[in-house]
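Weekend entry, working from home. Most of the wet-lab plans are on hold until the incubator is repaired, so I used the time to fold the two sequences that have been sitting in the queue since the last round of cloning. Logging both here for the record. First:
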Amino acid sequence: MNSELLQTFLKIVEYRQISQAADSLYITQAAVSNRLHRMESLLGVKLINRVKGNNTISLTRYGQRLVPIARQWIQLNDQVDSLKEMGDYHVLSIATSLDINTAILSEIAPTTLMDDSLLRFNIQTTDDLNIYDLIDNDLADIGFSFVESTRHKIETRKIGQERLVLVTPPDSAYPDFVGTTMLSRYDEIMIPYNDSYRKWHMLCWEDKIPPFVRLDASLPVPQYFVNDRNWALIPESMARFFLKHGQPLRVLHLLEKPPVLPLIAVSRPQRINAPEAKKLAVKLQSELFKQQQDNDFFQS
């Protein structure tokens, strides 16, 4: 029996009028009458007494017997629907940088959730130092960062590394192989990834000169390509992401190699969700490796 039909019948019983039952269900009187006729046809009995000129209905003896059955049916149906809400869900809270989430984590998260119907992700994108704070304060189960920091009771593990690639607008006049002396700091879209990168950067360009724009993530980089001299160093996975999604840009070969970015998994091993966190870290590691195997054209 259709629960919708039973619910309509119970509304008729509650209000004793077709019109009020229709109003409570936000449907027309004709729809209520149609559902009632369908029920009576399915059961082969008459459920209500209709008196011409009288809006108030009364129940037949079959209708009276159906009331407790209908209520029990609805109750059982609600209990079945609530089983999903009563499931033993385990929520994994993840703190990550915007770039890692965009280009790597988003590639594995959907399939990971599909593989485990009781797993749920709470993903927070934030800056690298706050990732450590969230882990330190038990506000996240695992974090993924390009910054390695030492904190008491926090475990860090390098699960991979990212090459930085030089990107420019698609119509730039730069040659395929570029030296740092050919790149003006005034045209740079700068992302200060970590201390190692900043130290290398200071050796190549005068730090007192302001860049064209400074960002905290590389995701918005293409939006700041406003002239054909703009350039940026971004993680290889982000370059792959842009090209995959049809974002026009050129990937050039920088002669002076920048330091690689370590991909660090940050966690507190004693947390309840530690096993799920470790599994996710392994999948992230595999995804990064797979991407790098598929993107050898980024290498010089």
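Second, folded right after the first finished:
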Amino acid sequence: MSSLTTEQTQWHAWLCQKALPLWDQAGFDEQAGLYHERLTFAGAPIPLPHRRLMVQARQVATYCQAALNGHYKAGERALACLAQLTKRYHRADGQAGWVFALGPDLAPSDTKRDLYGHAFILFAHGWAYRLSGDTALLTIAEKSLAEIDALFPSPQGGYRDAIPALSERHSQNPHMHLLEACLTLFEVSQREVFLHHAEAILALALRAFIPQGTDALLEFFTPAWTPEEPYGRNRVEPGHQAEWCWLLGEYHRLAPAGAHATAARKAQHKLYDRLHQTVPGPLLPDALYDDGTLLEATTRIWPQTEMMRLLAQHAPAEPATRYQRLCRMSQLFFTQYAPATLFGGWIDRLDEAGNSATDHMPASSLYHIYSAGQAILNAPPA
């Protein structure tokens, strides 16, 4: 078993010399001033009919973080891209909110409003403000948060997934990322409006997302925030469970005397214990049922990085045990998901046999990967 120091050295070299340059150079469309959504395994852009707000915002946030951390100098480009996003996505059809996607002509190609994309544009504004110090970015973030409250409210709390709604299904995932964005904005600004929204989301999560008696974080709900299916048939994604564990730790770090501090810590321990009971092996499968039985044995890259981030930071267990699994997962990351032959790229999903189940590299994964890498680089000795 390699030491954490060995893993940190490998992550630093791979991020700074391969991944960040690849996705800033081959992954950036100079003519449009926006990021590409996908690359081939040879590193060539793949033209697509839509350029989603979510992907653009994730890339902006990632490169702002990389600049702040001294890992890669593309912060000015990221800030310029954010200005492009505001011009082309925000109220691009004359209505409140941010459109979902642009077409190849940079005109709106899908004007629905989705909570997921709105969460990430807030997240991008938080990191952009931290890099630039431009308070106008906080003003836009506050206005966008007010638009979320106006556009997406659900009658029994929380938010609907999209407007116009495609179904009555409600989801935890966009709420999780909205929580992440609000915590980021609160940390960089100390404005209470962002903490207030974060605590409202936490209250819903503690009440509904983790049903009493299961300690499982469910994905889908009715409009009344009850589980969509009977027990044993509800989808659980271990990657999201790891992500929530980390976010609960972030809430406790940023608001140790917050309204939900005690309940959040208790929930974090329960989710972490369940992760180890239901996923004892090094890799996280894509999905389980809420009774712990396997639903999807494929393994995407992002759940692995979320688990690694958690093991490096905020996991409620002693470091030596966490780091042992972290080192094993890190080795598997570089041998199975990000081999040297891809020069900073990755295989997004593996099938049950460990073979590639995709034919391209999605830009959207960089957000997850960078967050894990940065947490590993900052992890203290065991």
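Plan for Monday: verify the second prediction. The chain has a mean pLDDT of 97.
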